Amino acid sequence: MYPTLQADPERAAWIETTAAELRSFGERHRAELDDANRRARFPRDLYRELGKLGYLGPLVPPEYGGLGGGVPEYVVISEEVGRHGLVSGQIAAQGQRWLLDWGTGEQKDRWLGGIATGEAVFSESISEVNAGSSFKGMAATATRDGGDWLLSGAKTHVNLGADCDVTLFYANAEEGLTSFLVDMTLPGIETAVTDPVGLRLIRTADVIFDRVRVPDAALLGPAGGGLKTFLSTFNISRLGNASELIGLGRRSLEVGLRYASQRQVGAEVVTDFQGIQWMVADAWTALQAASLARDDAAVAHIRGEDIALRTTTAKHLAITAAERASDTAYSLTGGHGLYFGEPYTDIAGDIKVLKVAGGSAEIMRNYIARRVLKDPGHEGLA
């Protein structure tokens, strides 16, 4: 659903082609994708294939093997990944954004092309047991040792943490919060796969750093500049989260409608009942509203405008829309939808993860409220 982005004829044609290609990819590999999802196995071969098609590197220039697109291309691919239950490239896109914004020439040459094509897998080691949306409780440390740094800390909820080639490690240095690009083959790193309820194709892991020695060249951005590096990427990546949520909502509602529109109830089918029709109307409207907000943020980014409030609004609406669509699908299908052989429970699990990833629903509401209350015109209300 791209109500604004499709207004441009050239982009509309690209969206149609991209959606068709990703739909076909999902149909060809459905059995392997579903099996990997149930087993919480990262299907690296399919991930690499998506990279070869250009769908892991929407933000990366062609000279590095990427698509050479912008935020509109990024959100379209993210939505279609959710719509067709594919391996998410969200973590890769965040790594690309970090490297493009903050990476040195050497760092880009080493990592950017591989991340864009799927040959190298990226992760971000940020969250800890007592540090999530707030970094105040972060215990990971970065200590200078001559011309090197020694990194120590226990990270959790790291998507692809046990499958990646490089991770972005956040730690507290003397200068403040600092980020480092770390080769995962270095000594002193241990990983343990965990068992998430959703996004199981990009499974999570705990990642432990024990005095891992890295050179000064591993710094991403300046020492003490970790908050800036974080915010520069997450204001964009929230649109990826929102888009995957919209795609998941579309998938759940569409599959449910296919079943309900042929499920006989006496002389009628499920979708003939007014109560069901109202639920469908509410779910579709919520998805359309989230899509409009997301498209508005993507277009605003092209214009060079501040998008923090727009991206936060888009994710907030997308959470609500995806949850409503998922709940409606269960009402459409009844007992038929209550089995693991159907996609509804997998979709609901993915929605739960994305509701938290990149900032929970409560964090979104807090930020929106602060923006409205601090602005003399209450962000357009006056």
Walkthrough of the structure:
By secondary structure, this protein is α+β, with helices and mostly antiparallel strands. The protein has three domains: 5-117, Acyl-CoA dehydrogenase/oxidase, N-terminal domain (Butyryl-Coa Dehydrogenase, subunit A, domain 1); 122-224, Butyryl-CoA Dehydrogenase, subunit A, domain 2; 227-374, Up-down Bundle (Butyryl-CoA Dehydrogenase, subunit A, domain 3), CATH 1.20.140.10. Helices cover 51% and strands 15% of the residues. It is built from eleven helices and nine strands. It has helices at residues 9-28, 30-39, 44-52, 71-84, 90-102, 105-117, 226-260, 274-302, 308-333, 344-356, 361-374, and strands at 122-125, 141-145, 148-159, 166-173, 176-183, 189-193, 204-215, 264-265, 268-269. It has a four-stranded antiparallel sheet with strand order 2-3-7-6, with no helix packed on it. Strands 1-4-5 form a three-stranded mixed sheet, covered by helices on one side. A hairpin with a 2-residue loop joins strand 8 (264-265) and strand 9. It is globular. The model has no long low-confidence stretch (mean pLDDT 96).
CATH-scheme architecture of the largest domain = Up-down Bundle
CATH topology tier name of the largest domain: Butyryl-CoA Dehydrogenase, subunit A, domain 3
Terminal Cα span: 31 Å
**The CATH superfamily title of the largest domain:** Butyryl-CoA Dehydrogenase, subunit A, domain 3
Please bin the fraction of helical residues. 40-55%
Largest sheet: 4 strands, antiparallel
Low-confidence segments, ≥5 residues, pLDDT <50?
A: none
Q: How large is the share of residues in beta strands?
A: 15-25%
Q: Can you list the strand order of the major beta sheet?
A: 2-3-7-6
How many distinct folded domains?
3
Mean pLDDT: 96
Q: Please provide the ordered H/E string of secondary-structure elements.
A: HHHHHHEEEEEEEHEEHHHH
Cα Rg: 21 Å
**Structural class computed from helices and strand pairing:** alpha+beta
